[in-house]
Each structure stands twice: as structure tokens, then as C-alpha cells.
Design brief:
The complex is a heterodimer.
Chain A: H1 2-32, H2 39-60, H3 67-93, H4 96-116, E1 125-126, E2 135-138, E3 141-144, H5 145-167, H6 169-179, H7 181-186, H8 191-216, E4 219-220, H9 224-239, H10 244-264, H11 270-284
Antiparallel strand pairs in A: 1-4, 2-3
Helix pairs in contact in A: 1-5, 1-8, 1-9, 1-10, 2-3, 2-4, 2-8, 2-9, 3-4, 3-8, 5-6, 5-8, 6-8, 9-10, 9-11, 10-11
Chain B: H1 2-32, H2 36-64, H3 72-93, H4 101-130, H5 136-155, E1 172-173, H6 182-187, H7 189-208, H8 210-220, H9 222-227, H10 232-257, E2 261-262, H11 276-286, H12 291-310, H13 319-325, H14 328-342, H15 358-382
Antiparallel strand pairs in B: 1-2
Helix pairs in contact in B: 2-7, 2-10, 2-11, 2-12, 3-4, 3-5, 3-10, 4-10, 7-8, 8-10, 11-12, 11-14
The chains are: A mainly alpha, B mainly alpha.
């Protein structure tokens, strides 16, 4: 029983990280129909920003997690730059496949550019412990603060994000653009600005995910985002891509599947199981769990 | 007349290949004394050969069928592992004692064939469910299958370090029945070249056949193609399996050229040269829908990769550029972005380099350009 509970909480913690990354994927996909492969690498950018800013925070006497705000800023800038420099010119000219290949190229570029910077280099860097150690005991299971905070923060962020897309003007503009681009241009929405804003928000979510990832696994390396990003993308597809509650649901499902496979089946097969679930869902219900099936226009 | 032209093309290509081979044997003689051939040129040719087959095979799916598959190296891994393990089994069974003689060559050819067939079967199994999806979803699902294949190989008990010894699942295989040393790479270099030529010829025949026309129709407009009576599902799955076959053959060549196999080198993204992304880079650079483009791109990318790592001229460049060159993938990523921005269909586009038509193509191109200029001028004068 205690193993079960432990696994459950590990799964929820993993899931909340996946959910945050998946939200970034889903928002960008919803608005420009592009799998932003570079999204996973925004996590890496956030991670390194925190590695370099944490000593500053220590010097200033601030709590360590304050550096996440700088990470959010840097990630948002990188995200917007990616959209402006790489995606927008390609989107104007090419097909969806060329856009996808560009996204892969940008991801490769970010990963290898990070390695080429001498201060970063190819070797992993160890991060400081961000949250306080210790925790609370419930029914023979120790819950450390990192787990509790990770789950709480991600739930709060998701609620804020959901309210943002439902209530505010920019949020409504985002939903409009993802639903019907020409019509939203006619309604006087600045589509390009909305897309850039979406990239900024999605990338800042990646920075928050980086905070949680580092809090749990205090190691940062240049390819940390690629597998994490892929699994988060799986989560987004699982829940129904382009749908914000779907990304949250998918994230938690993937996290739980991974932690239960690791502890009950085999740790090396966890990735295979995650992708197996994706394949099953795509074959049975290609639009995802919460997605609606839409017919194809001829 | 058309038959005649095809025949002309075949004869011309065969002649040129024969001339190249004869010239090549002279080079071999000339280089043989210095040892450069053995140490540098022969391994390079092996590497070029499997890169060419790999890139051209992905081009069947990506360029001609128009479906982005990101798990192509998974099929290559299937081919490489099955060739290595099969040859190991043959060695243990005593079919060949040393790596020479008729028996070994038969085993070698058999291994390459079976590696291709196994990869094709895996491709069929992957393709039947995966090709019901298209676009982004297909890219992701093939990526997932590629990872699952690598993951399964990692966990196979008989594909562990020792090979065929049960109970030691591992990410690397150190026992490889094929793995050629430098001397054997020179002896069997004709195997690599012959396999590559045959594979490319088979792909060209496929593309020019009824099947090739059908898949190009699917690429251009799937709904229109199916309305014209093309069984799109069949052609898609068949092409996918056909291209997986050649990926498996490329894997078998890879197993010959490398003594150890490691699943990490077939993963989706890693620092090495052989990942599914790099293959996509080659195909896109060469031109989606141009087999000759893929061949040229594979050779060029191999040379770029080799020169960046070993070229003497790199030492003459400024230090910051040298630092960048330490990460070749960075260079490829930049090249890929630039090419996609300015030529979304790749450098060659769908143009096929052809010996027979080379001069007439140049002529028509010049005429086209002149006509374009004329048109522009007229359009200007009308304004």
C-alpha cells in the first residue's frame, strides 16, 4: 500500500511537470498547427538561466526560487525570437511539413548552441537545492516539500492560465485565432501579435517546468529537454492537442503511467509504455481523449 | 521510342558505373602504398554507402510519398542488429570459419537480405497502424515507434553485450559476426558498392513504375488520388515497408562497417551523425522527391562532416569558428534552417540528375530562364 501511494505521488509530481510543458505545446499547436519541437529545449534554456542566476540570488539574500522569474523572462524572449526569426518566414512560404522540419532544426540548433557556449559545455551541471528539505508523513509515506510544492504550483498555474484564456482579451484573441484565423483577422485581431504572445506564454510555462524539474533532479544538461519535451508532447496529444484541459489531463496520465511502469514493470521499459499509450490512443481516437473528431474538407 | 530512351539510359548509366569502377581500382592502386586507402578512403566509402542507401530510402517516404517519418533509424537498427546476430549465429554454427571464401560471402549476402526483409516486416507492422494518420501525428507516431524499437532492442536478452548469450540485456552489442576490420573493409569494398548500386537501381525502378506514379499522386492530393481509384492505404503501407527494407539493408552495411553496435546511435536525437534527424537533414538538403539529390546530399554531408572533424583547413579558421565546428550538428541545423527558408523543397527540388538528359536539361533550363525574363520585361512594360 505504501509503495502504491509513493508511486501515486511520484506520478502526480511527474505528471504536473509534463502537464506544464504540454500546455506550452498545446497552446502553440492550437494557434499555428505546428509541433514546436524546440519547446523541450526552452526547458533547458530555463534550467541554465536558473543555474547562472541562483548564485546572484544567494548573494542578494533572496530565496532561490526567485530566479525562476528571470528564467521566465529569458525563456519568453527565446520563444518569441524563435517565432520571429525561424517560424514566421517559413510559415509564409512552405507547407506544414517544412515548418515541422524547421522546428526540428531549431531544436537541434538550441541544443548544440548551448554546448558550443564555453560556460555551458557538454557536461551536466549540478544545481542547488531549490526548495527546503524535509516533508510530512501521511500513512507511512513521506511526502517531501518538493513534491507537494510541485503539484500545488502547477495546479495554480493551470487554473490561472485557464482563467486567462477564458476571461481576458488576449486569451479570447488566442482562442479566436486558433479557431478561425481569417475570421479573426476580419474581427480586428492582430494575429501576428497574438501568436508571439502565445509563444511567450508557452515558453514561460517551460521555465516554470524547469524550476520543478531542477527541484527534483538537480542536474542540468543540454539535452535534458528533448526526451522530457517528447513525453510532454505525447501528453498533449493524448489529452487532445489544442485543448488546454486536455493537456493537463494528458500530463497527469503520462506521469502516472510512467511512475507505475517504473515501479511495477521495469524502469527501462517506461519510455516504451508511454509511446505505446500514445499509439493506442492515436489509433482509437486520433483527436485525443477530450478532442472532437472533425471531418476533412475536400 | 520511349523504350529506346530507357534502354539508352540504362546502357549509359552502366557504362559510367563501369568506367568509375575501373578508375576507382587505379586510385586503389595509387593509394594502396601509402596506406591512406586502407585507413581513410575505404572506411569513408563504407560510410558513404550506407548513408546513401539510408537517405534515398527515407526519400521514398518523405519525398515521394510525402509523409514525414521520424523513426527511420529504428528500421536501420533492426537491420543492423539482425545482420550482426545472424552472422554471429552462422559463425557459431560453423558455416564459416574465417571471414573469407564462398561460404562467408553467401552468409554476408544472406544476412544483408534477411536484415532488409526483417526491417520491411517491422515497417509493415508499424506502417499499418501508423499510416492511418497523417502530417504531424504521423511524424510523432513514427518517432514513438522508432523509440520503442530501440527500447525493445535494449531489452532483448540475446542482443546484449555478448550477443546470443541469454540474460544480459544491454545497450551495446560487442560481438558482431560481420564487423570488418580495416583490411577486410578493403577486401569487401565491392560488397558495399554493389549493394548500394543495386539498392539505388531498385528504388529508381520503383519510383518510375506504376507504384511510383501512384505514390506521387497521393503526395500531391490524397483525396483526388483515392477518387481516381488508387488504393491509397495499400500504396502508403507498401511504400513504407519498401523504404524500411532499404533502411534495413543500410543497417546491415552499418553492421559490417562497425565492430560494435549501440542502440544509442540509432536514437532520435544524439550528438552522433547517425540519427533520424540527420537523415531528414540529408533528404531535405538533397531535395524531397529527388533520389539523385539524396545521393549527392549524402556524399556532401559525409564530406562536410569529415572535413569539419579532420580537415586541415579548419585549423586556419578563427578560433570561434573552430569552436562552433566542434559541434557539427549545430552547423547542420543552421544549414537546414537556411535551406528550408529559401528553398522549401530542398536544393534539387524534384529534379533528377540524369546523365542522358544532362545537356538537354541545361538547355531547357536556360530557355525557361530566358522566357521568364522576357515575361518579366513584358509585365514591366505593361505597367
Amino acid at each position: 500500500m505504501s509503495t502504491f501511494l509513493q508511486t501515486l505521488f511520484v506520478g502526480l509530481r511527474l505528471g504536473s511537470i509534463y502537464a506544464l510543458v504540454a500546455l506550452g505545446y498545446t497552446m502553440v499547436y492550437g494557434i499555428i498547427r505546428l509541433i514546436n519541437f524546440a519547446h523541450g529545449d526552452f526547458i533547458m534554456v530555463g534550467g541554465y538561466t536558473m543555474i547562472f542566476t541562483v548564485p546572484v540570488m544567494i548573494a542578494l539574500g533572496l530565496p532561490l526560487w526567485v530566479s525562476v522569474f528571470l528564467a521566465i523572462l529569458v525563456c519568453a524572449l527565446v520563444g518569441m525570437a524563435t517565432e520571429l526569426v525561424a517560424y514566421r518566414p517559413v510559415r509564409k512560404k512552405g507547407t506544414s511539413m517544412t515548418a515541422l522540419i524547421t522546428a526540428i532544426a531549431v531544436s537541434l540548433l538550441l541544443e548544440n548552441l548551448a554546448q558550443a557556449i564555453p560556460q555551458i559545455g557538454p557536461n551536466p551541471k549540478v544545481a542547488n537545492k531549490i526548495f527546503a528539505a524535509g516533508g510530512i508523513r501521511i500513512a507511512n509515506v513521506t511526502l517531501d516539500w518538493t513534491t507537494i510544492l510541485t503539484i500545488c504550483i502547477s495546479v495554480i498555474v493551470m487554473v490561472i492560465l485557464y482563467q486567462f484564456t477564458q476571461k481576458t482579451k488576449i486569451g479570447r484573441a488566442m482562442r479566436c485565432v486558433s479557431e478561425d484565423k481569417p475570421a479573426s483577422i476580419l474581427m480586428g485581431i492582430n494575429v501576428n501579435r497574438t501568436i508571439v504572445t502565445t509563444f511567450a506564454i508557452g515558453s514561460s510555462l517551460a521555465a516554470i517546468a524547469a524550476l520543478m524539474y531542477i527541484a527534483q533532479y538537480p542536474k542540468v544538461y543540454t539535452t535534458m529537454g528533448s526526451i522530457l519535451g517528447l513525453k510532454a508532447f505525447v501528453a498533449a496529444v493524448l489529452g487532445g492537442i489544442g485543448i488546454i484541459p486536455g493537456a493537463m489531463l494528458g500530463g497527469f496520465v503520462i506521469g502516472l503511467v510512467e511512475s507505475f511502469t517504473t515501479s511495477y514493470v521495469s524502469s527501462s521499459m517506461a519510455d516504451a509504455f508511454v509511446f505505446l499509450i500514445l499509439i493506442i490512443v492515436l489509433i482509437i481516437k486520433p483527436a485525443g481523449i477530450l478532442g472532437k473528431n472533425m471531418g476533412e474538407k475536400v | 521510342m520511349i523504350k529506346n530512351k530507357t534502354l539508352q539510359g540504362y546502357i549509359l548509366n552502366t557504362l559510367v558505373i563501369a568506367v568509375l569502377l575501373i578508375g576507382f581500382s587505379f586510385i586503389k592502386e595509387a593509394f594502396g602504398k601509402a596506406g591512406d586507402f586502407k585507413l581513410i578512403l575505404a572506411p569513408s566509402i563504407w560510410q558513404c554507402c550506407y548513408l546513401i542507401v539510408l537517405a534515398a530510402s527515407l526519400n521514398l517516404t518523405l519525398g515521394f510519398l510525402g509523409q514525414l517519418s521520424l523513426g527511420h533509424c529504428g528500421f536501420m537498427a533492426v537491420g543492423a542488429y539482425s545482420a550482426a546476430l545472424l552472422s554471429l549465429a552462422a559463425e557459431r554454427a560453423g558455416i564459416f570459419k574465417e571471414k573469407s571464401g564462398i561460404a562467408f560471402i553467401l552468409v554476408l549476402v544472406g544476412c544483408i537480405l534477411i536484415a532488409g526483409l526483417l526491417a520491411a516486416i517491422v515497417g509493415l507492422l508499424v506502417g499499418i497502424p501508423a499510416l492511418r494518420l497523417k502530417g504531424d501525428y504521423l511524424a510523432i507516431i513514427t518517432l514513438g515507434f522508432g523509440m520503442i524499437i530501440v527500447n525493445i532492442i535494449n531489452n532483448l536478452p540475446f542482443a546484449g553485450q555478448e550477443g546470443l548469450a541469454l540474460g544480459s540485456a544491454s545497450a551495446s552489442l560487442y560481438k558482431n559476426g560481420l564487423g570488418f576490420g580495416t583490411a577486410l573493409k578493403v577486401t569487401y569494398i565491392w560488397v558495399a558498392i554493389a549493394v548500394t548500386v543495386i539498392c539505388i537501381a531498385m528504388m529508381f525502378m520503383y519510383v518510375r513504375s506504376k507504384y511510383g506514379r501512384a505514390i506521387r499522386a497521393i503526395r500531391d492530393d490524397e483525396i483526388a488520388a483515392s477518387a481516381s481509384g488508387i488504393n491509397t492505404a495499400f500504396y502508403k503501407v507498401f511504400t513504407f515497408a519498401y523504404s524500411a527494407f532499404f533502411a534495413g539493408v543500410a543497417g546491415a552495411l552499418y553492421a559490417c562497417a562497425n565492430a560494435t553496435l549501440s542502440t544509442a546511435s540509432f536514437a532520435f536525437a544524439n550528438g552522433g551523425i547517425l540519427n533520424s534527424t540527420f537523415v531528414v537533414v540529408m533528404v531535405v538538403l538533397g531535395g524531397m522527391g529527388s533520389l539523385t539529390g539524396s545521393i549527392v546530399a549524402a556524399i556532401v554531408m559525409f564530406l562536410v562532416n569529415y572535413q569539419i572533424k579532420n580537415g586541415l583547413w579548419v585549423k586556419l579558421l578563427p578560433l570561434w569558428l573552430q569552436n562552433i565546428f566542434a559541434f557539427p550538428m549545430l552547423v547542420y541545423a543552421v544549414i537546414l534552417i537556411i535551406v528550408i527558408m529559401f528553398r522549401p523543397k530542398g536544393i534539387f527540388g524534384t529534379y533528377e540528375l540524369s546523365l542522358r538528359n544532362f545537356f538537354s536539361d541545361m538547355k531547357t533550363q536556360r530557355q525557361n530562364r530566358l522566357a521568364q525574363k522576357q515575361e518579366n520585361k513584358e509585365a514591366l512594360s505593361h505597367e
